[in-house]
Design goal:
single chain, 15 strands, 41% helix, alpha/beta, 16% strand, five-stranded mixed beta sheet
Length: 411
Amino acid sequence: MKRNMKKLLALGATVGTAAFLLAACGGGSSESNSSSENENASIKLWVDVAFVDTYKPLVEEFEKEHKDWKVTIKPSESATAQENLKKDPSAAADVFMMPHDQLGQMVDAGIIYANTKYEDSVKENSTESAVEAATYDGKLYGYPYGVEAQILYYNKAKLTEDDVKSWDTMTSKGKLGANFGEAGANYNFTPLFMSNGDELYGADGEDINGTNFNNENGVQVLKWIRAQKDNPGVIQSNADALSNLGNGKIDAFLSGPWSKNDVEKALGDDFAVAPYPTVDFGNGEVQQKAFLGVKLFGVNASTKSPVAAMALADFLTSKENQLTVFEKNGTVPANKEAQEDEKVKSDTVAEAVMTMSDPDHSVVMPKLPAMVSFWGPADAVINDTYNGKIAEDDYLAKLDKLVADTSKSGN
């Protein structure tokens, strides 16, 4: 895939010379010179509105350590980070929150600065999946600060810990609310294909021609999805899942850590959480997988102070600061040592998310821009299969079409 690096190369002019830029960002001996070039740096920081109060004292601490660097923190939703940067990179924040799956679009647009100065520490201190998520086309860009994966919430008055370990057991003893039949099923259930041995954009999620759902494994997944329509223990639930959990219509549902507070309100003392169950597509039990999302800080390729900006991104994602963000906002750390902290390990939701974030339980969401061409067709196949709109004899043909759609460029 063509890489647009013009903006990255042009950045050298903003800090003096290209030669200086390469020396300053290579983590070599010229660090003192690069710090000098960034004296009196003024850095803009974008974080989600819910995180502003958490990061303000951290920014103040950073400024105390770097008295010549001034940081202005402003709210800006990370979900639209690449869109906001593209509008006017020169006016955008120097450092910003972003979901990792936008990384490919940002790299191809030349709007994100490679993490050259702190590459070694990120790789050493972050989980394997977080490093993978922060890397694109073999180069590290992001600064991971959190991991996020869907988990299973359930009513422990209706289901036991053993019941929820298997999809078949859980849905025979209770009722699971799950969205197979409406928009959004793609996010929840595309990983079923990877659970059964298939790949989405190849083993590393970066091969545009690497999707292989159109095989016997993929057909098995569609047969399993169709069977859930006739499973009395599976109740189609989407926007009504929480209300269904509260009124007892369902006993469990799949969602992320963002639902924790609402589920606790709905279930009270009967609140419980677990990793995803195993599923059987016909060849024995396998682990049901979810998509893994990694929360990153990124540095704007148009920053006039790359050394200061990288230093801020690194500081905000330190072990100690990831623990602070966990305590204040519930974001599960990406730092390996932070994950071992007792405050994190004793939190049942965090524990389930950390289990789900390992490669046996999740797949790192692909970062290819082509993903924008995937979601709609994937929803259609899952929805129509569940709702009985596709004959079983046509499953393979539908998967052939899905794979063809998946290989279309997202640019």
